[in-house]
Amino acid sequence: MQNNSQTKEKDFEDIIYDYFKKSPLYVARSPQQYDQDKMFDVELLSQFLQQTQPKEWKKLERQFPSTEIEAVMAEFKGLRNARGILELLRFGFVLRGAKLKFAYFKPASGFNDDHRKKYETNRFSIVRQFQYNSQHNKEIDLVILLNGIPMITIELKNEFTGQNVHHAIEQYSDPNQRDHRDPFLKACLVHFAVDNKTVFMTTKLAGKSTRFLPFNQDTKNPVIEDKYASSYLWENILQADSLLNILQNFIMHPKDDKGKILHDQPIIFPRYHQLRNGHEITSQYLK
To answer: 3-state DSSP call for residue 264?
Structure first.
C-alpha cells in the first residue's frame, strides 16, 4: 500500500478508524460521550451491566436507588488504583451483594446460549481525537474502550506527511506533550505508537524514561500489497475476539516472590511473535 497513490489521498487515521467502526463488537463513539472526570463512557457501561446482569442490577437498584451507575463507578475508581483495570476486567467485584462483571470472555470449552449472548454484548468503542484532559487541551488520535472503560491508546503518524513512529514515541515520552502522571494515561493497559510500516508499544509511560518495545511481525514488517505493513494491528490484533483473548489469557501483572502484584511495575503485554505462538490471532468466532 505504500506505493498506492489513492491511499495517499486518504488520511491514515481515517482508514484505521473506519475499519474499527465496521468491525464485530465495535461501535464508534464521540469524545463528548466520554466523561473525563469519571473516566468512563457512562452510557456504555450502564448499558452493558443492565443487559448482561439484570439480577445484579436489581440488587443495585435496591441498594442505590436512582444512583446505581454512580455507585458502580465510584467503587471501580476506588479499586482501580489498588487492583488495576486488568484485574477488574477479569474478575469484577462485589458491591453491596451485587456480583458485577465488566467483560465476558470465551469459556474454555465452548459457549452455552446465555454466555454467548453475554459475550456478544461486549462492546469495544473506538474514539478518535479523544480528549482526555480538556483543561490542558490534551488529546490522543485513537482510544479503545471496552464496555465504557478506557484501555488502549494509539498515536498515529503518517509517513506521507513526513512523520513516523519515532515522532509518536517522542510525543508519548515528552512530559510537555503527555504527562505520564495523568490519571487517564496511568489507567490504560497499553499505548501503541504506529506509522504506516511500524508498531511500537509500552504499558507504562514514565516521561523520558519510557521504554517502547517493537510490536512488529518480524525485525521489519513485510510489505503487503494494497495494504499498510502495520495493518495487522487493527485488522487482527485489536479485533474484538483477539483482544478479549489477550486480555483474558496473555497480559500479566509482575508479581513478587509471594505472588503479590507489583502495581508499580509495567504490565507484561505479549510481543507479536509470542501471541502468534500462543494462539491464532485471526478471529475464530466473529467472522
So the answer is: coil
CA–CA dist 46, 153 (Å, integer):
22
Confidence of residue 276 (pLDDT cuts 50, 70, 90): low
- Cα distance between residue 150 and residue 142, in whole Å: 11
Flag whether pLDDT at 2 surpasses 80: no
Report residue 282 as a C-alpha cell.
485471526
Contacts of 43 (CB under 8 A, 6+ apart): 33, 148
pLDDT of 48 above 60: yes
Nearest CA among 143, 144, 211, 200 for reference residue 173: 211
Which stretches does DSSP call E strand in the chain?
A: 26-28, 93-95, 98-100, 124-133, 138-146, 149-156, 190-194, 199-202, 213-214
pTM for the full model?
0.91
The closest of 144, 99, 141, 167 to 244, measured between CA atoms, is 144
* Structure confidence at residue 156 (pLDDT): 96
Q: What is the DSSP letter of 237?
A: I
C-alpha cell at 227: 495494504
172 sits in which H/E element: helix 165-173
For residue 97, the one-letter residue type is G
pLDDT tens digit sequence for 172-223: 999 999 999 999 999 999 999 999 999 999 999 999 999 999 999 888 888 8
By the 8 A CB rule, do 237 and 281 touch?
A: yes
Domain borders along the chain are: 42-120
CA geometry: angle 98, 100, 103, nearest 5 deg: 170
Which of 29, 12, 13 lies closest to 21 in space, CA to CA?
29
Q: How far is CA 285 from the centre of its chain?
A: 20
